[in-house]
Amino acid sequence: VIATMPLEAKKLREMSVEELRQRVAELQKEMFDNRLKATTKELTNPLVIRHARRDYARLLTVLGEKTRAAK
User: Fold this and answer.
1) What is the pTM of this model?
2) How confident is the model at residue 4 (pLDDT cuts 50, 70, 90)?
3) 41 by DSSP, 3-state: which?
4) pLDDT at position 1, please?
5) DSSP 8-state secondary structure symbol assigned to residue 19
């Protein structure tokens, strides 16, 4: 599991756009794996799904802010 602690928007804003896009891709894969584990009853901590979903939304928000600011 990559995301054990929720990501902070403050730290995300310090990252570059490319780093944010890479992190989004990693999180998408992690979310898929967690959903698969939850379906097969292998997931020990279901809160991981919630944290990943919120981190994903936070990443997309910061990424959107940066792309809008660049225009």
Assistant:
1) 0.84
2) low
3) coil
4) 44
5) H
Dist. CA 12–CA 10, nearest whole Å: 5
Asked whether the beta carbons of 67 and 42 are under 8 A apart, the reply is no
Q: How many helices (H) and strands (E) does the chain have?
A: 3, 0
Judged by DSSP in three states, 42 sits in coil
- Nearest C-alpha neighbor of 13 from the set 65, 52, 50: 65
Residue that the structure tokens 């890479």 belong to: 22
Upper half-sphere CA count for residue 62 (Cβ side, 13 Å): 22
How many CB atoms neighbour CB 36 within 10 A? 11
CB 50 within 8 A of CB 3: no
Measured between alpha carbons, how far is 1 from 21 in angstroms, rounded to an integer? 19
Beta strands in the chain (DSSP E): none
